[in-house]
Amino acid sequence: MYGLQLLVGKILPFVTIVVLVAGVTQRIRRWHKAAVTNIALFPSATTDKRDMWREVLGEIVLFSSFRREHRQLWAYTWFFHLALLFIIVGHTRLITDWPLRVLFGMSPQSVDSLSAWGGGIVGVVALATCALLLFRRLTLPRVREASSGEDYLVMLLLLAILITGNMLRFGSHFDVTRVQAYFASLFTFTAIQVPSDSLFLAHFLLVQVLLIYLPFGKFLHIPGIFYSKPLLAKDY
Amino acid sequence: MNREVRDREKSLRAIVDQVKAIRNGPRVLQLYMDLCQKCGICAEQCHVSRAFPERRTNPAVRSDLIRKLFKRHGSALGPLLKAVGSARDIDPEELETWQRDFYECSGCRRCARFCPFGIDNSVITRKGRAVVHTLGASPYMMSETQRTSDETGNDEGQTYASFVDACSFLEEEVKDEIGMEVSIPIDQKGADILFIPASADLISFPETYMGVAVFFRLLKDFDGTTWTMSSKAFDGANFGLFTGDDAHMKRKNQLAYDACIELGVKKLVIGECGHAYRIAKRLGPTASRNKNPFETTNIFCLADEYLAKGAFKFDKSRITEKVTYHDPCNFARSTGIYEEPRRLLRAFTDTLVEMTPNRTENWCCGGGGGLAVMDSQEQVTKLNGTFHDYRMKAGKMKVEQIRASGAAYCAAPCANCKRQIMQLMEHYETGVKVGGVFDLFMKAVVWNDAGTGTRATTGQPQPAGKAAAATQQKELSDGL
Ligand code: HEM
Ligand code: SF4
Ligand code: SF4
Question: What ipTM goes with this model?
Answer without folding.
Answer: 0.93
